[in-house]
Specification:
With about 240 residues, this protein is α/β, with parallel strands linked by helices. The protein has 2 domains: about 120 residues, 3-Layer(aba) Sandwich (Rossmann fold), CATH 3.40.50; about 110 residues, Orthogonal Bundle (Arc Repressor Mutant, subunit A). The chain is built from 9 helices and 12 strands. The protein has a 5-stranded parallel sheet with strand order 2-1-3-4-5, sandwiched between helices. A 4-stranded antiparallel sheet has the order 6-7-8-9. β3, α3 and β4 form a beta-alpha-beta unit. The radius of gyration is 20 Å and the shape is elongated. It binds calcium ion. The site of calcium ion has 5 residues, from loops.
């Protein structure tokens, strides 16, 4: 049974969410402030967190930061209308999605389903990815290229893994934003985020591989593709 931690200080909304989620056969735990949210997160080990941002004691952002230091549990923000910058900040801080109050329960259920599906994809993807050039171990998050250990940031690791798994095609920037960063494309976030990360990742790969040939190629106006050893492998 999927357990959802509901963090919301408005009693009416909190109870309404609890009733609706239980009706849909979710197990629930509820917190009315940020401190209780952190305590219950550890005590209840929920599968998903619904997180209001404006909370007593600790803000939703502080709760999110705390959770992200210890876990990749899916987090959906409950935001108020007009808090556009908060949504962006929340997504950049690692939230998976948001709903804007007032929202219908059907929309919320749909978002929960979508986020849980993505999270299943991530947790099931524990197999080591390997070719002659790189080796990526999702369980330890260790990356090697040409038998050298790479120091990758978590996003660089996820990015390389995603490109590797889709190496038969060019992956559009929008797709990388939504699948690696979990951004919703309708937020119109800057795709330069992707470019910056790819540039850093390529630099690290090329340093390890010791060649000027591209391991990851940019395809103009579309996105990126992992080429791997086919064009890049140069043994010294
Ligand atoms: Ca609130």
């Amino acid at each position: 049974m999927t357990k959802i931690l509901i963090v919301e200080d408005e009693a009416g909304l909190r109870q309404g969410l609890e009733i609706n989620l239980r009706h849909e056969n979710y197990d629930t735990a509820t917190a009315a402030d940020g401190e209780e949210a952190i305590r219950l997160y550890h005590a209840e080990q929920p599968d998903l967190v619904l997180l209001d941002l404006m909370l007593p004691k600790k803000s939703g952002f502080e709760v999110l930061d705390h959770i992200r230091k210890v876990s990749k549990v899916p987090v959906i923000l409950l935001t108020a209308r007009g808090q556009e910058t908060d949504k962006v900040r929340g997504l950049r801080s690692g939230a998976d999605d948001y709903v804007t109050k007032p929202f219908g329960v059907q929309e919320l259920f749909a978002r929960i389903d979508a986020v849980m599906r993505r999270s299943d994809v991530v947790t099931q993807a524990k197999a080591v990815c390997e070719d002659q050039l790189i080796r990526l171990d999702p369980s330890t998050r260790e990356a090697h290229a040409a038998n050298q250990k790479l120091k990758l940031s978590p996003k660089e690791f996820d990015l390389l893994m995603y490109l590797f798994k889709n190496k038969e095609r060019v992956v559009p920037r929008d797709e990388l934003l939504s699948r690696v960063w979990n951004y919703r494309v309708d937020l119109n976030l800057n795709s330069r985020t992707v470019d910056t990360h790819v540039t850093r990742l390529r630099r690290k790969l090329q340093k390890a591989v010791g060649t000027d040939a591209a391991v990851i190629v940019a395809v103009a106006k579309i996105g990126y593709r992992y080429l791997g050893q086919a064009s890049a492998m140069v043994h010294s």
